[in-house]
Amino acid sequence: MPRTLTESQFELLAELLAPSGAECAEPDAAVVQELEELGYLSHGRPTPAGVEAMEPYRVKRAVFLAAGFGSRLVPITFNTPKPLVRVHGKRIIDSLLDACLAAGIEGIYLVRGYLAEQFDQLLYQYPTIRFLENPVFNETNNISSALCARHLLSNAYVLEADLVLSNPRLIRPYQYRSNFLAIPKQRTDDWCFEVEDGIITQEKIGGEHCWQMVGISYWDGPDGEKLAQDLKDVYEQPGGRERYWEQVPLVFRRENYRVAVRPCEDGDVTEIDTFRELKAFDRSYDIG
Fold first, then answer.
1. Shortest CA distance to 167 belongs to which of 214, 107, 206, 122?
2. Partner of 282 at 20 to 30 A CA spacing, among 26, 31, 60, 158?
3. pLDDT, tens digit, for every residue of 202-218?
4. Helices 7-16 and 29-38 meet at what angle, rounded to 10?
5. What global pTM score does this model have?
6. Phi and psi of 189, rounded to 5°?
7. How remote is the C-alpha of 125 from its chain's centroid?
């Protein structure tokens, strides 16, 4: 079925199809009327035709990049991959996996490398996970992990596996376009985006009046297909093995993509980079 909805129509149907308990804004009367005339809405609820119209926007897969060592979190990562480190009693990756399952995402893939066999423990709680092996994780940057999953990136989330997700509603079952989560900032020293009219125009380290990058993105069908080739092309160029994977669509092949920024807030997602940050986030690690 072709994609036929405007973004406003999509957003309203997505809100109405969200799990119970999600907050819904007051709907735009004009958009409601449009959907009613199309037969997609009746008495404030999506009709079967409305649900069918949302199918082309359904997220089909989640790809987790989990191959790295996590050197800044030593000594914890000497014996445990960073995504499996426990924070407040749960593995870091569990919050992301739980959110994907709650959103009805059926295909869950995890690219592993460092201490790969330890990820087998996830199968007891998440038996549908499929593992992809990255044999060169310690020789390259994370572009090699994305390359391992390059044919799975259409209609898919790509998630850094070391994020603590406090707002699971960010993992939505439907997405309208390719996008990257980011937090609006007056100033940041972290990786961030310049944005014009909602579209990412530049990725850089540090800036003012910008958007701090969060390691969760979504790629629609056409963009996922382009990524499959562009990742390979950039990886095979001189210096390509040292690139971050997202630099392919946002820097080196930027002309091929229009990636939107999707806003989130401080506290929605937390990346724990260092042992000091881990101790601050979970005081059980602060043993003096």
1. 214
2. 158
3. 999 999 999 999 999 99
4. 90
5. 0.94
6. -100, 0
7. 21
